[in-house]
Amino acid sequence: MDNAYIIIIVIFMFLIVIGIISIGLYNRILFRKKKVDDKLNSIKQMLIERGDIIRRLNTLFSNSSFHEDNIMLELNDLYKIINDNNSDTIGLISSTNKILVKALSLDNIYPELIKNQEYLSLKESFKDNQYKVLYGLETYNDVVEEYNNYRNKKIINIVSRLFKMPDYDSYVKDKDEVSL
């Protein structure tokens, strides 16, 4: 009878040790996941700034003599998508970049835009935002790579699948994506 109690105690202690190790591994994965989520939220904030640039551009174009209806429609659509909290943050970067570059290149067609202070201010705001986004994407890719590499280690992979931790994709620039 004594041997049975000893075996039960050993098994119980083994399960406790496994539980403590699993909790520690889970916390490490969760820490890295939080870093990814924080970077994603900072990029979302930069997209909200971009949404403001889009709104101001749309107002500028609608109150002026130069109308590019297709660009204004695209700006309106993007503004709505950016303000939709369920939208794909990373996917929006490329589409907002493309339309803003197109809209902020209209001074080639309408030279009087170069004299418009609001337009020049928006162009400068977009450049600043673009640098922030590019840096944010670099750091996002770094933490995603760190998270995915850690998550895919053998024992940690078991724990991460047990707790249904997601795998994140890095941002890959479109081949036709341009910047100012």
Concise summary:
This protein is mostly helical. The chain is built from 5 helices and no strands.
Mean pLDDT across all residues, rounded? 81
Task: Spell out the helices and strands N to C.
Answer: HHHHH
Strand content: under 5%
Q: Major sheet, described briefly?
A: none
Q: Classify the secondary structure makeup into a structural class.
A: mainly alpha
DSSP strand tally: 0
Account of the 3D structure:
The chain is mostly helical and 180 residues long. The chain is built from 5 helices and no strands. The chain has helices spanning 2-62, 69-82, 89-103, 117-151, 154-162. Helix 1 packs antiparallel against helix 2 (69-82), helix 1 packs antiparallel against helix 4 and helix 2 runs antiparallel to helix 3. The protein is rod-shaped and about 95 Å long.
Q: What tags apply to this protein structure?
A:
mainly alpha; 180 residues; 0% strand; single chain; 5 helices
What topology does this entry show?
Blueprint: H1 2-62, H2 69-82, H3 89-103, H4 117-151, H5 154-162
